[in-house]
Design a protein that fits this description.
The protein is α+β, with helices and mostly antiparallel strands and about 400 residues long. Helix content is about 60%, strand content about 15%. Strands 1-2-3-4-5-6 form a 6-stranded antiparallel beta sheet, with no helix packed on it.
Length: about 400
């Protein structure tokens, strides 16, 4: 790889990383706002919130990467054209296809990244997210202890908390335990914390008092305590076995599935859809790169507008991606839909390479340019008229 190739390769990947991080960050924030109730209603810490929401990032990167590559290539080519570097390289003997080499190398890097994410990282994040969510949703201590409400965890056992403090601590804890018909226990504490260890789950209360009413006795026994552990193991579960759906399985688990897989027996269409989506994911970067370079890679002078080419590349990429989504949806019922998706990717990539090899310069049709010029002239005359009183 020569110095020019290294320069273009580094510029393209740097732009790709910047665009990918920006788009992923924006979309991640919008998705993370939906999980704010983990902290507000369920009392989870900020680390739990960030951990759960960040597990969806690989899936976002998988979808955004080809689009980010397209934007990076368009930016790099526009930069080279603005500085007249494409014209100079073309005059020095660089054909458009030779100029495509560093962009192809960058595309290979992105395709490898997409392959790794689709085969392992995205499903691994999804299954970790599902397991983590199961541990939270099956924990009655987290979900039933709502602030300001009397929660009946068992027949004769009622708990109320006044508020949740940062870090998962509880304030104003009241417990009324009537499970034993021979006695009644009432506990009031200033603070409490849910503690889980190898022996079980406990609600550790601090700075409170305990009243024990026993059958046959007139006066209750009252005890003030600095710390008291109330056993809650019966109502807390450390997790549960979860059934992995199609998107939470690694690529090799989709290919080499067991014969007695109950999920596959119920949803064969979803298996077919997901498997072909994983196979097609690394092909989109090549199709997007060839299409973008075909529109923008030909040498032009600085007086020639590139707006039409940029718009054409964007529309082509958008159309191909929408067609891919449509084929993916149809793959649920039709085994032929994935073949159409592969055919579209191959045709678009082939047409793009043919345009690059032929040095085809994409220009707007003369009739379209004439109509735009007339429209601009009419607008200029309309806004440029002198205002009469």
């Amino acid at each position: 790889m020569g110095s020019i190739d290294k320069y273009i390769f580094r510029t393209t990947l740097a732009s790709f990383a910047l665009v990918l991080a920006s788009l992923t960050g924006v979309i991640w924030v919008t998705q993370a706002l939906r999980a704010v109730d983990l902290m507000t209603n369920q009392g989870q810490t900020i680390f739990t919130f960030l951990g759960i929401t960040s597990l969806a990032i690989p899936t976002l990167v998988l979808i955004i990467s080809p689009i980010a590559l397209m934007i990076a290539i368009a930016h790099t080519l526009n930069k080279l054209a603005t500085d007249s570097e494409i014209i100079v390289m073309n005059a020095a003997g660089f054909s458009p296809f030779r100029l495509f080499y560093p962009f192809f190398y960058a595309t290979c890097v992105v395709a490898l990244l997409v392959t790794f994410i689709s085969a392992y990282l995205a499903p691994d994040g999804m299954r970790r997210l599902k397991q983590w969510d199961a541990e939270i949703t099956t924990d009655l201590l987290t979900n039933l202890l709502q602030t300001g409400r009397f929660a009946q965890l068992d027949q004769g056992l009622t708990i109320r908390i006044r508020e949740r403090l940062p870090g998962g601590d509880l304030a104003g804890v009241f417990i009324d335990d009537r499970r034993d018909p021979k006695e009644r226990v009432s506990i009031v504490a200033e603070k409490g914390t849910v503690v889980k260890n190898g022996e079980g789950s406990f609600l550790v209360l601090r700075d409170g008092n305990l009243q024990r009413f026993q059958a046959g006795k007139r006066d209750p026994a009252m005890v003030a305590f600095g710390s008291y552990a109330f056993d809650m193991s019966k109502f807390s579960k450390s997790g549960r076995d979860v059934t992995l759906n199609v998107k939470e399985r690694y690529l090799w688990e989709l290919i080499f599935r067991s014969q007695d897989d109950r999920v596959y027996a119920q949803l064969p269409g979803e298996f077919r859809q997901e498997l072909h989506d994983r196979f097609a994911a690394p092909l989109y970067p090549f199709a997007f790169a060839a299409l973008t370079f075909a529109f923008l890679g030909a040498p032009r002078t600085t007086r020639q507008s590139r707006t039409f080419s940029i718009g054409g590349a964007g529309l082509g990429v958008l159309g191909l991606r929408i067609a891919g989504f449509a084929c993916s949806v149809m793959a649920l019922k039709s085994p032929l839909a994935p073949l159409v998706q592969y055919a579209l990717l191959i045709i678009v990539t082939g047409v793009g390479l043919w345009m690059i090899l032929g040095g085809v310069v994409v220009e707007p049709p003369p009739a379209l340019m004439e109509a735009i010029n007339k429209s601009n002239a009419r607008l200029a005359r309309f806004f440029g008229r002198p205002v009469t009183a």
